[in-house]
Protein: TatD family deoxyribonuclease
Amino acid sequence: MWIDTHCHLDAHEFGNESVAQAALAKAQGVGMIVIPAVETANFSIVSQLAASIDNGCYALGIHPIYVPNAKEDDLRVLREQVAAAMADPRFVALGEIGLDFFIPMLTEPAMREKQVFFFREQLKIAREFSLPVLMHVRRSQDVILKHVRQIPPAGGIAHAFNGSDQQAKTYIDLGFKLGFGGAMTFTRALQIRRMAAELPLESIVLETDAPDISPAWVHPGRNSPDQIPRIGAVLAELRGITLEQVAAATTANAKAALPRL
Structure:
């Protein structure tokens, strides 16, 4: 079995094909797809989508790209929704949360401060409910690490990891898994491919971030969760192990990172 630990299956790019895409992924051996929310407006959408497919589960959170339009009251809504979702076996994590210091608008001082505030408040919610987190860590690794040290959640995943060896080690030491996906499939992505080959296998989970971060054979087209086994084959090739070993290890790692899976 395979697990896609990060897939925005509710995204508009899928149109009305989300359920069909999940079925296609299941036919390829993807036994679970984690669907993270990005704002309060799609909390019910991701939970309902996860409930409508055999291989769906979900997370609730406010994505840093959506922080500019978020209100402080959204944090109250999030906490209430999380409290209610704890009774739902398909609810597995707080996410997608984090920091994005890549998009210029988000790096302006006031917006940077707002991002940090929302990230810290969501870490507090995760800690209160003993939940792991799905973290967006674009150009923000060291700042993320600073705050998770101060407000440690119950582990989780550094999604689309693209940091340094030291940052990887620190995440691992703090109990996080590292998400690898389509970026690893490009031969020019030397640093990501080296890390995928050299990091402890027990620290790696697979993800698509569909419809984004398409693998090399799909780019620039729409990514989809059925690509996970082929992405896993790239990881197997980079590490010189079998596809079956990658499937077993990354599935076990995902379940360790997200115990409610």
Summary: Strands lie at 2-4, 30-36, 56-60, 91-100, 133-138, 156-159, 176-180, 204-206. The chain has one domain: 2-257. The chain has a mean pLDDT of 98. The domain at 2-257 is CATH 3.20.20.140 (TIM Barrel).
